[in-house]
Amino acid sequence: MPEEHKSFWSTIPGIITAIATLITAIGGFLVVLNQIGVFGSKHDPKPDEKKVVTGTADQNEVQNLSDAEVKLRQMELEARLREMEQRLAQQNQSSASSGSSEEPFQNIAQMAGTWYFDNGAYWAINQSGVNISLQEYSFLFGSQILTAGGQGTVIGSKAFIDFTNISGASGKAEVTLSSDRNILSGLLKDVYGNTLLTLHLTRATDENF
């Protein structure tokens, strides 16, 4: 007796199984494509991307440094700043021993305090008479670290600062205190006289002066 043809309903389980197998295969293929970046936007942040906010240091250069390189450069920077602080202390002692009068400096700008860049990096400035020293702190790899510093002299409303930062740049910074004493603005130039950066810092709002 000839074999009877199977009904349409008897083939449905096989069709469903075949479709499920096809969907699973396509899903796996799409996962592989996504993992190799076929569907990723070029603007998507990478998992190991680290936030870097700097004051005067070269952000692109610092961002490419390893943690070990950052620590080494910071140690070198701290050593240079200690030398600057020693020179500043010697200048203060020399002024005190000579009994020089403060009369000519009564109208010098008072710049001591904390000064912020727009991105959150900041300068901490100390002042003794006409002499100032500063340390710059930036946000690198999850914490605020020392990224620059210098020492210099205040004349009137201006400060002239010998400057060095963690990028290896050194030179001269010249800043002017605004009439309301809330803004420091000026330029940072390298040792060759090329302008590196326009400076604009705002005094911390909770400070009295």
Which key phrases capture this entry?
alpha+beta, 209 residues, 3 helices, single chain
The DSSP helix count reads 3
The helix-and-strand class reads alpha+beta
Distance between the termini: 110 Å
- Strand tally: 9
Compact overview of the structure:
The chain contains three helices and nine strands, in the order H-E-H-H-E-E-E-E-E-E-E-E.
Can you offer a commentary on this structure?
- This protein is of the alpha+beta class and 209 residues long.
- It has helices at 8-35, 59-63, 67-98; strands at residues 52-53, 113-116, 122-128, 131-140, 143-155, 158-165, 170-177, 183-190, 195-203.
- It has an eight-stranded antiparallel β-barrel with strand order 2-3-4-5-6-7-8-9.
- A hairpin with a 5-residue loop joins β7 and β8.
Write the layout of secondary structure elements.
Layout: H1 8-35, E1 52-53, H2 59-63, H3 67-98, E2 113-116, E3 122-128, E4 131-140, E5 143-155, E6 158-165, E7 170-177, E8 183-190, E9 195-203
Antiparallel strand pairs: 1-4, 2-3, 2-9, 3-4, 4-5, 5-6, 6-7, 7-8, 8-9
